[in-house]
TrEMBL record, chain A:
Known role: Catalyzes the condensation of carbamoyl phosphate and aspartate to form carbamoyl aspartate and inorganic phosphate, the committed step in the de novo pyrimidine nucleotide biosynthesis pathway.
Keyword Transferase included in the entry's annotation: yes
Gene: pyrB
Record bears the keyword Transferase: yes
Gene Ontology molecular function terms on file: amino acid binding; aspartate carbamoyltransferase activity
GO BP: 'de novo' pyrimidine nucleobase biosynthetic process; 'de novo' UMP biosynthetic process; amino acid metabolic process
Homology family: Belongs to the aspartate/ornithine carbamoyltransferase superfamily. ATCase family.
Name of this chain's protein: Aspartate carbamoyltransferase
Catalytic activity: carbamoyl phosphate + L-aspartate = N-carbamoyl-L-aspartate + phosphate + H(+)
Domain Aspartate/ornithine carbamoyltransferase carbamoyl-P binding: from-to ranges: 7-150
Assembly mode: Heterododecamer (2C3:3R2) of six catalytic PyrB chains organized as two trimers (C3), and six regulatory PyrI chains organized as three dimers (R2).
From TrEMBL, chain B:
Protein name: Pyrimidine operon attenuation protein / uracil phosphoribosyltransferase
One Pfam family cited in the UniProt record for this chain: Pribosyltran
Phosphoribosyltransferase domain sequence ranges: 9-161
Keywords, comma-separated and alphabetical: Glycosyltransferase, Transferase
Keyword Endoplasmic reticulum in record: no
Matching InterPro entries: PRTase-like (IPR029057), PRTase_dom (IPR000836), PyrR_bifunctional (IPR050137)
Keyword Acetylation: no
Alphabetized CDD domains for the sequence: PRTases_typeI
Molecular function GO labels: glycosyltransferase activity
Amino acid sequence: MSELSVRHLLGIKYLNRRDIELIFETADHFKEVLSRPIKKVPSLRDITIANIFFENSTRTKLSFELAEKRLSADVVNFSAAQSSVRKGETLIDTVNNILSMKVDMVVMRHPNPGAGIFLSKHVKASIINAGDGAHEHPTQALLDSYSIREKLGDVGGKKVVIVGDILHSRVALSNIFALQLLGAEVKVCGPKTLMPKHVESLGVTVEPNLRNALEWCDVANMLRIQNERMDMSYFPSTREYTRQFGINRKLLESLSKEIVIMHPGPINRGVEITSDVADSGQSIILNQVENGVAIRMAVIYLLASQIKQ
Amino acid sequence: MTKKLLLSAKEIDIILHRLACQLLESHLDFSDSVLIGLQPRGTFLANRLLELLRKEYKVKDIPFGLLDITFYRDDFRRGDKTLAASSTDITFLVEGKRVVLIDDVLYTGRSIRAALTAIQSFGRPREIELLTLIDRRFSRHLPIQPNYRGRQVDAINEEKVKVSWVENDGEDAVYLISQ
């Protein structure tokens, strides 16, 4: 079938394998569209989408907006900084006010985990979660797996290690769900203080040593140190973190095979990854960004196709 | 359900030769022309014509592409099921070219309307022509007519015209199917 099993994209947790495969197949077509001189299709010309960002974002917002415009949707943007949220309005009221202006779909980023799920139960529009606190960031995980599939041919059977701040990372959680659904094996690596308790219950193994993790894996996904989410010190200094969990050319060259390096961005150059690695041929960081638009077009297109007239 | 044979393999073969000759007559060496098969079912006809032109009529280097029109259709969100896309494979620009769109059945004309929009993503062609194997002439919703047609068929809306190809369906044949 060519339809998703869900009406909203709230998290990878709610998808099945067929959904992800359908999103990838659709993204393949949109990737071809994006290579044309005119990168726009008229499918969504009668759909209006609101991008509601209660938290800062540059590339995700840009990527969603480009995806929406290339599908010919009408787009309205809203960021909390200049809004009546500051004046005390509730989330449901804010969104219902926007929806009463005939908006069909809401792309939302919110600092609270579960905000998208909450909203989907109270408003009529289709909701796409663009990151809810430390919970999920489904489109990032989809584009990550899609980029692995593009680079290595398949995600199934591959070994992926996620390195860094697993505790605060919605990218890590969504990636774990997506990679496992597609049949990859996942390890996590990082300081003990940034490892969630019971992370093994997700079916991943913890590898405290970066070198061992890199020797094992096909792909290393390096997460950003999220200083803005750290309410206390989780490691003594950035320098110490870099020495233990940062990746550099020397380390990569000492491995027995060539691995693929990913990073969800924005990069702290010289902290979790050095410039020579980030800009090397092994890195697919810019492919991830490029694929982000095609993946988001696919998600929006497939969800919009379920909005009946 | 009744199934009536409209065209046999032999008749299809004769028609394909005629269509290839008609294309030759107006495009000569195809130096300024491109053939575009419409996904999914127009691709079989397009491939057959391409092969004929190359092998039987010795035309070299005909630019050839496949175009999917799913994202350009005017019935998005209007049907019960979501439309699955096929792949587009056009590796050249159509700017200033003479484009021949190829599809198996011309029915309401809506697919062709979508194709006319879709092809513009690859540049501004000098002209666009349409070739179809079957022309259901009394079923049009839009003012679109083929430049080259295999056979005109008068069928009512409840009837279906099914084109079968050896490479996909095991035989070359055109059937009229009525419920």
